[in-house]
Amino acid sequence: MNNMKPFLELPALKVNQPLGTFYVITLSAEKLLSISFSEPMSYKDSKGNVKGSQRDKDEKRLRDIARYIDSVEMAFPNSIILAANYNQLGEISKDETERWRIVEKDNGVCTIFIPKQVRLAAVIDGQHRLNAFEYVTKSERFTDLQLLCSVYFDLPNSYQAFLFATINSNQKRVDRSLALEQFGFNVDDEPEKSWTPEKFAVFLSRKLNIDSTNSPFHKHIKVAPLNPENLFPDGQTGYWVISTATIVDGITLLISSNPKRDRIDMQQKSIFSGRNREMLSDTRDYSPLREFFISGKDQVIYNTIINYFKAVSTHLWAKAKGASYINKTVGIQGAFDLLKMILKRENSGSPDLIDFDKYLSKASQIDFSNNFFQASGIGRSRVRNAIGLASGLINKAKVKKTELAIFEALIANTPIHQKEKWIWEEEAEKALINALEKAKWNYDSRTVDLYLDSNYEDPFTCSSFEEFYTKLISITEEAFVAYLPADNEIAPEMREKFDEEDMVQSHLAEFEEQLNRLGWINNMN
User: Fold this and answer.
1) What's the CA gap between 380 and 270, in Å, rounded?
2) One domain for residues 208 and 320
3) Which of 222, 351, 360, 410 to pair with 123, CA 20 to 30 A apart?
4) Residue 472 sits in which domain range?
């Protein structure tokens, strides 16, 4: 294999089980250590503030395992379990340039693509086996010995801890309740008032999937890759499925702009000594359903989501063609974005009574199978913009000038005159979207952290709007130039026509709320 390739390409065996699909591969210890990380579960303070799904490293045990690895009778038949696309910030990475992905051919043969330059796989189980290689004396064990791995894609951390606790439930070394208590898979056993936003979202996602009476998502939610279109090809008996990660993310963003912060704040008390949602009352957060969450009006939130997606089902899903993006990941993400917009527009004390039909009916004629919509962050924004423009939620001035005519044709259901999209333009937009999706908005310090590479511990911090805007322009330009052809005649012409400011401004329009909360003056217009 060409060592210059940015991805490892390995054969994989697909395994379907009730929790979700996973893929079995083999990797050398050397390669596995270079692309994975462990997040030890450890108490941060006397109040039991914890994170992660793993145990602390036991050096004595690691040395014992290392001696076994060096032995002639060494064998590790059990698999190391990995959560792919889970970064060291504790989030699922949506950066398309670095994500693990799976390609399945018609004959069922699978190939897994693993990024070489970034650690995007959390070790769910097998931490000690893997880390014991630090103490191995036989160098050939690193390169020649193959380790069995089971890979889950886009596995929310709730499920990571659940798997870890289930696998190790009969071992004294593991406190099963600690892992479950941290990540919320035992929500049914906890007081509802103690649920963090993430736990609440996990609970609702499960409820949406089993509610055969009311839920449009009944039997459509699965713990599966973020891009299930790669696993469930078009034409498979009309069935569509969305990952739990997509639904959990969508619900969480309705009640929290920073779920990790909220989780840490609530973990200052245990569930047995006063933990409750009211602990978040003093935290500034303008998520539209946050007050309903804090006050325990869970049924209102559930009914709001149910009623909204019933309207989505009636006006968009029911009219979708087989290859439509509206009931794929980008479509559901875009729909949740629109729900957030509607809730903010209505600002209703009874969000479950909002007339969602009046918004979505205006977008019912849009053909979401058009290849203008695509399975990426760009596709999500285009779904959102198309429905938003049709419904009047988005102003034309907030959309890229180069795409406005296409949106208007889609809304009017008239032929589209779409110019060829060059790869350098697409890559520039992807780079911009990835930077914005990873951004951390620090309202207390009035800064924004941009994570520009795999080093999540060293962000580029912007202290003003001007600095932030300039850096986004630079990111966009650099990606554009990197993909330009070497042809001296084409490159200058393409560069002259490329409007990076229009691209940045159109995507920043999605973040006006965050910019306003920072108190930054948005002088883009």
Assistant:
1) 38
2) yes
3) 222
4) 423-518
